[in-house]
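Saturday, quiet lab. Running sequence design on the structure tokens for the scaffold JK sent over.
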């Protein structure tokens, strides 16, 4: 039988402690949810942007390794955009709605910005110093992200980062949902399913693509959420239309989902991607998404139960208030309130 000295035992205990801490750290990193991971990634990128003295940046939709688009890529870009703005850093972030307008105006596409000449044009048109671009790489039960910060003047990579989050039901649902229809001036991306519900408000066509039940965020304490995906299309052949989801003064959306059991689910601005949100002030809005003529955007909205009730499948009642206008300038536009009320199947 081998006998260990006191020093040997101390070394063993120390090694066990170190490896235990490392193992716990690895487990925690792999079990992080998507939003927590993106928040940390935004902080990492912000530090690198500040080190290089960039004054204005923009975040492009993340793609797969073949350049394919999905709602997950748009969601990641939107969340990073919001996290960077909320961080109140020493650089400006170009609003994604404004980016789409600039691209449409100059007949550019987001995918085309990987070309140094096009990136330089964006720098000239919008004063953007750097782009944040990224790839999504599914790996079994997790999803990896690789991110680069690229200057618009020289196409130099001045920063990079990696991140990983758990591939839960929400992430899988986003990733399996291709972009229903590309922005104006872009080619369609993949087949388009028939919408569950279609409503028209003047020039604006609202197609409710689906209502799915997804796993709730453990961090927020929700057990089940509704995820609504919709496409907003401008049917006017000549003019733009501006749209925002209506909120109250508390930033809670003016809209609810009532499930078959009579439980109500609400949403707020943190659960919206792809379209602006604004309070109705004197029949106008101070923030809106421009949809160019014959163009469209795809938006997603999560609805949660404030009392922790799980979402139930079946026929649900949806009520959602939209602000729609045909002009927007200098940070303000006149708007009319459009109330969308319908029944939609949740699964």
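Result came back. Writing it out in full:
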């Amino acid at each position: 039988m081998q006998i260990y000295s006191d020093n040997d035992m101390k070394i063993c205990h120390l090694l066990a402690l170190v490896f235990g801490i490392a193992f716990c750290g690895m487990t925690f990193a792999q079990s992080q949810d998507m939003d927590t991971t993106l928040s940390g990634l935004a902080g990492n990128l912000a530090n690198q942007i500040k080190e290089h003295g960039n004054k204005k940046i923009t975040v492009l939709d993340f793609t797969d390794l073949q350049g394919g688009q999905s709602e997950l890529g748009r969601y990641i870009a939107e969340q990073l955009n919001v996290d960077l703005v909320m961080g109140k850093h020493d650089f400006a972030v170009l609003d994604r709605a404004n980016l789409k307008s600039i691209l449409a105006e100059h007949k550019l596409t987001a995918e085309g910005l990987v070309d140094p000449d096009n990136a330089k044009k964006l720098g000239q048109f919008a004063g953007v110093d750097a782009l944040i671009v990224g790839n999504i790489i599914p790996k079994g039960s997790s999803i990896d992200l690789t991110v680069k910060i690229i200057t618009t003047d020289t196409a130099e990579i001045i920063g990079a980062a990696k991140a990983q989050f758990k591939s839960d039901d929400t992430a899988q649902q986003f990733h399996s949902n291709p972009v229903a229809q590309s922005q104006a001036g872009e080619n369609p991306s993949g087949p388009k399913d028939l919408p569950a519900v279609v409503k028209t408000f003047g020039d604006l066509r609202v197609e409710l693509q689906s209502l799915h039940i997804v796993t709730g965020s453990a961090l927020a304490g929700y057990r089940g959420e509704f995820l609504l995906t919709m496409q907003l299309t401008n049917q006017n052949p000549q003019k733009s239309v501006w749209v925002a989801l209506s909120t109250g003064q508390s930033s809670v959306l003016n809209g609810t989902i009532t499930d078959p059991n009579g439980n109500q689910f609400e949403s707020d601005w943190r659960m919206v991607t792809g379209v602006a949100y604004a309070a109705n002030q004197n029949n106008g809005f101070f923030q809106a998404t421009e949809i160019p003529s014959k163009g469209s955007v795809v938006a997603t909205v999560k609805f949660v139960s404030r009392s922790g009730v799980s979402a139930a499948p079946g026929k649900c009642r949806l009520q959602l208030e939209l602000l729609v206008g045909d002009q927007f300038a200098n940070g303000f536009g006149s708007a009319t309130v459009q109330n969308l009320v319908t029944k939609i199947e949740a699964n």
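Notes for JK: The domain at 32-168 is CATH 3.40.50.10610 (Rossmann fold). The chain is about 25% helix and 35% strand. Ask whether to fix the surface positions before the next round.
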